[in-house]
Design brief:
The protein is an alpha/beta fold. The protein contains 10 helices and 10 strands. Helices cover about 35% and strands about 25% of the residues. A 6-stranded mixed beta sheet has the order 6-7-8-3-9-10, sandwiched between helices. A 4-stranded antiparallel beta sheet has the order 2-1-4-5, with no helix packed on it. It starts with a strand and ends in a 5-residue tail after the last helix.
């Protein structure tokens, strides 16, 4: 029996008076990849950030509705945001390594969340880098700056930094948009492997990418979730004509 790890009920979000998300209802299955597609400015990234309350950092944002992760409403008043963001990690559009060594980039999150012990940190860094297939490429230059890595290596490093703090959900906001096609395929392959241990939600402007990597796809338009379903059905037999117009290129 497949389990839902996230359940969203009547989620709406306003930037001041502008409504960016309109009454979103959705379920996300555990250990699956869910892709969110739609034209620019339709609310995809805002929705993604609502899942670990990163929108709270923006002035004049108001949110209503419920977002349950493992049965807990993350919008209840006593939610520990540090713990939430540890469990629900976000990979940004452009790689954002810290101006630190490769080792300290990965160790940073572990230390921030209270991880101690020299040997334990070494084990955790190696494990995280191995998880993203970066260990063999960087094991001899762990003390060198992470800024010297290629863009694709930096993105894998940022994913390793998240994995080191043991999240359960990975949010990816167009993680390949700054990468070339070959690097994009490496990240896509990595996502497919990570799905065995993590639930992944990816925002992408690339419909081919959504078709390649995701189990489920949701189409957003003007802040509304038009429909969500199994990826092959969304791309071959969508229920809503607006989804079909977007996928076939008649709109967007």
């Amino acid at each position: 029996m497949t389990m839902n790890i996230i359940e969203i009920k009547n989620l709406s979000l306003f930037y001041g008076k502008f409504q960016a998300l309109k009454n979103i209802n959705m379920e996300i299955q555990v250990n699956k990849i869910t892709a969110l597609i739609g034209p620019s400015g339709c609310g995809k990234s805002t929705f993604l950030r609502a899942l670990n309350r990163m929108n709270d950092l923006i002035d004049n944002v108001t949110t209503s509705g419920e977002v349950y992760i493992n049965g807990q409403d993350i919008y209840r008043h006593n939610t520990d945001l540090l713990t939430l963001r540890k469990k629900v990690g976000l990979v940004f559009q452009r790689p954002n390594p810290f101006p630190l060594s490769i080792f300290n980039n990965v160790a940073y999150g572990w230390r921030v969340h209270g991880g101690k012990g020299k040997n334990k940190i070494k084990e955790k860094v190696k494990w995280a880098l191995e998880s993203v297939h970066l260990w063999d490429e960087v094991k001899d230059k762990l003390e060198e700056s992470a800024l010297g890595l290629s863009g694709e290596q930096q993105q894998r490093l940022c994913i390793a930094r998240l994995l080191s703090i043991e999240p359960t959900i990975l949010l990816m906001d167009e993680p390949c948009s700054a990468l070339d096609p070959e690097s994009t395929l490496k990240i896509e392959k990595l996502m497919y492997e990570l799905r065995k241990q993590y639930t992944i939600i990816i925002v992408t402007h690339n419909m081919q990418q959504a078709a390649r990597v995701s189990d489920f796809t949701g189409y957003f338009l003007l802040g509304e979730l038009v429909e969500i379903g199994e990826t092959n059905k969304i791309f071959t037999n969508p229920k809503d004509s607006r989804t079909e117009d977007y996928i076939t290129g008649r709109f967007g």
